[in-house]
Predict the structure of Exocyst complex subunit EXOC6/Sec15 C-terminal domain-containing protein.
Amino acid sequence: MWETVVGKMTSVLDVQFSHMNSATHLLMVKDYVTLLGSTLRQYGYEIGPLLDVLDNSHGDKKDTDYENVVLAFSLQTSDIMPAFLYVAPFSSMVPEVCRIVRSFIKVSVDYLSYIRTDYFDVVRKYLDKFLIEVVNETLLDTINSGNISVSQAMQIAANIVVLERACDFFIRHAAQQCHIAVRSVEKPQASLTAKVLLNTSSDVAYITLLSLVNNKIDEYMTLTESVNWTSEETKQNGNDYMNGMIFYLDSLMSTVQQILPLDAMYKVGTGALEHISNTFVAVFLSGSIKRFNANAIISINSDLKMLENFADDRFYSSGFGEIYKEGFKSCLTEARQLINLLSSSQPENFKNPVIREKNYYALYYKKVASICEKIQGFSRWYLWEPFE
């Protein structure tokens, strides 16, 4: 029955993806399919065909589309023509905005050319004002609306990066329309204020994206529901929630890699893993966990190892090893040090300043003391007093 269902699903998705012109819609559908696949995977269903249809779906553009939406507005990042079918990192919003701005420049030039001769500086001011008060404000309103998904926030962030680059095209185009030498407007002092503000909006988009990603992570990190904290059996293979968590992170990072710059991908990866690390520690501290035993620690340790392996694999396979000193795995340091301490045969070493600085530097003693009070059946934890 499942083979029949998944066959129909992949067939429908293939057709739908082939008719999609909006990257935002494409990413939204991928989001839903990823969530469905993650859920089914936890129940043992084979979801390989679903993953394949996601990997094979792209917002393909023909050479004529490339000329209309990339070359026409100098949005390419390389002089080398890509192989077609071409996949743009931005959605249709970018060329549409570029067309509107180009039209605005033409109307401004047409109007000012009738009333004065030296009108380039005025056109530039009009252009700056339009980009700041209309384009940038609209982007911020959309970002702050509270009605966007992870995929939409990701696409907006990617679009802003391209629009920021397009500001150079806008000012060159304005110069050409005003019959001004282009080289005279390529000086730093001739740049647009809007370009700086778009960069700020990009930061806001990333903050929103990370917040939405963290909310999604919280849906998976159901530790209080998924983990038996006083189990009498040792569970060496981890818990089911972590399979879903890693599946989501893998899908997220793959999508980010397609449309955002490398530094943005690093920012998303570190932000997500730091949030997971904080969640591990917060759960141990939460009032909903009254007691836990050694078996629970072993179980959580297995979960954390799975996550650390994923973090290392993704960091090096993405080429970050040659760029950044701090790997993704380092974002999990606090959680790792806490589990190491709880698994230690000599937990009292935490009070030794030298050992603590070497092995437990990310841990705060008051948090450790609160967590240790919850350990079931380990009287040695009560043999040492917390720090003053």
Remarks:
- The radius of gyration is 26 Å.
- The chain has 15 helices and two strands.
- The CA atoms of residues 83 and 254 lie 21 Å apart.
